[in-house]
């Protein structure tokens, strides 16, 4: 969201550029209104703390994603196996293969 708003704020004054930037923002909002976005709950916070205690070394946001998936006993759909394979107990599916 911040990225889309930053583009709008920095965009040139050409109307067609501004129209396009706003259309991309609206498309993003439509997308997030139809997908199921899992919340970061107290169970996810617990899983995150556990992963940090276990010294799992992946990026901060990836670690949070893994914690959310673990908190709901879910399956992570990703092509980023290199990082997420480091997370013990995380069930992963790669639909690119």
Account of the protein in words:
With 97 residues, the chain is mainly alpha-helical. It has 2 domains: 33 residues; 52 residues, Rossmann fold (3-Layer(aba) Sandwich). The protein has 5 helices and 2 strands; from the N terminus they run H-H-H-H-E-H-E. Strands 1-2 form a two-stranded parallel ribbon. Helix 1 runs antiparallel to helix 2 and helix 3 packs across helix 4. The protein is elongated and about 50 Å long. The mean pLDDT is 93.
Supply the key terms.
97 residues; elongated; two-stranded parallel sheet; mainly alpha
Helix content: 55-70%
How large is the share of residues in beta strands?
A: 5-15%
Kindly report how far apart the N and C termini lie: 30 Å
Mean of the pLDDT scores? 93
CATH homologous superfamily placement of the largest domain: 5'-nuclease
CATH architecture of the largest domain, please?
3-Layer(aba) Sandwich
Query: Radius of gyration over alpha carbons?
Result: 18 Å
Strand ordering within the main sheet: 1-2
Question: What is the class of the largest domain in the CATH system?
Answer: Alpha Beta
Unreliable spans: none
Assembly of the depicted chains:
single chain
Enumerate how many helices there are, as a single number: 5
How many beta-strand segments?
2
How is the biggest beta sheet arranged?
2 strands, parallel
Q: Which geometry do the CA atoms define? A: elongated
Instruction: Please state the structural category.
Output: mainly alpha
Instruction: List SSEs in N-to-C order.
Output: HHHHEHE
Number of domains: 2
What do we call the CATH topology of the largest domain? Answer: Rossmann fold
